[in-house]
């Protein structure tokens, strides 16, 4: 299912409010593996759309306009092979969920850029840092290569 050299077919990214980190990861995954890995995102609590996410994702050609924050309870689907959690509270929630389901859970500690202060540009730089770290982590974990695009 998700062992070495095997890519999961369905991945859920999860964070606190499904406003920043998990939607970024979902958007990146869709960009890197279009139509090849089913991907969704969710949060522990209901969040709201974050305009900084829209801005930094647009810089790399990812349109976040259709993203609507949702909680684990809002998900219409189940059967994910892997849940990647990006915040401690999401990790605890995922572990609770997977007590009865055969899913792998991985915790990727990820900085919360909403805590950034300063000018608009300084705040955007924090969001870019998170985006770029997620991009590198996704590429490495899911063994992405430019030739992988079919």
UniProtKB/TrEMBL annotation:
Coiled-coil region(s): none
Gene that this polypeptide is encoded by: arsC_3
EC number(s) recorded for this UniProt protein: 1.20.4.-
Keywords per UniProt: Arsenical resistance, Oxidoreductase
Pfam family, one: LMWPc
Biological-process GO terms, alphabetical: response to arsenic-containing substance
Transmembrane segments: none
Keyword Oxidoreductase: yes
Location of the Phosphotyrosine protein phosphatase I domain: 9-144
PANTHER family found in the cross-reference section: ARSENATE REDUCTASE
InterPro entries named among the record's database cross-references: Ptyr_pPase (IPR023485), Ptyr_pPase_sf (IPR036196)
MF (Gene Ontology): oxidoreductase activity
Domain of life: Bacteria
Protein name: Arsenate reductase
